[in-house]
Every structure is written in C-alpha cells, then in structure tokens.
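ok so i was messing around last nite and threw this chain in just to see what happens. nothing serious, just curious
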Amino acid sequence: MNPLPLAPPVSGRLMELSPGAFSGQPLIRKIDGARRWVLEEELMYRSRGGRTITVPVGFETDGASVPRPLWILYPPFGGEYDRAAIVHDYLYANAERFIGDDQGQISRGEVDRLMLEMMDVDEFRLTGRRMIYRGVRVGGWRPWGHYRQQAEKRASCLSS
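result:
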C-alpha cells in the first residue's frame, strides 16, 4: 500500500491536505460497555473535489455498521475502511451543517458516494468497497432518518 500524503495534525484550524487525503490515522477509544468508540484526536479528510470535513475530538461512532454475521469479513473497527466509516458516521449525524452539490443540504447519496471515495483512497479492495457501499445504500435510510429527526427536534427547540 502506498503511503498517503499526510499533514501533521493541527487542532482547531484548517490544515492543508492534498485532495483525496486524510490527516492521519484515527485515535479512538472504546467506550466501556458499549459497541461505540470516541474520537480522541481530530480527523480530517479532503475530498477529491476539494471539500474538507473535520471530525472533532469527542465524536462517538459505532464504526462500520455491519450486521454481526458479517463481522468476520467486515468488523466494525480494524478494517481498511475505519477512517471512511468515522467520516461517514459524522456526515450522517451532521448533514445539516454541510452544503450539497445542489447548494442544499448534503444528501445521503452524496455522503455514501464520499464513503466509496474514501475507501478507494485507502486502497480497500474493490469487492469490499462495493459490498460496503451497497450495504449503506440498502440499510442507511434508517440511521439517516433517525439523525434527521434528531436535527428537527434540535431546530424546533432552538426556535421555541
């Protein structure tokens, strides 16, 4: 695997990354008693299109949301898609903060295609990329809807 172009981690400000690059490997800690992990260091990704996504310290993720019977092939963490899964989870949870290609809120399809791109950047095997992409396209509607409901509740609380 070829080394990725990396920039030193610089917390709290935009760092320059080449298109199609991550800021480094994620530093995560498992949350006791849960199948969740917390990001201990900021993780950034600059898409091939030039968009920079910064996942902040403290963000909680369940890693790759893979059905348990498939964990032997695609574990929640420990795969070549870990960074993509973290950024994907963050975008699902915070879509309202990102502008999509049509200048509206970023769509689920755009987020899923970005995950596919990130797995390619990390040189995850093609069959695995396709399988995970299909999985998020088929099953991602449920968490996407859950996060949109939470965002609507937050917005209504702020406007009240």
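not much to say yet. The beta strands are 21-22, 28-30, 37-39, 43-46, 52-55, 60-61.
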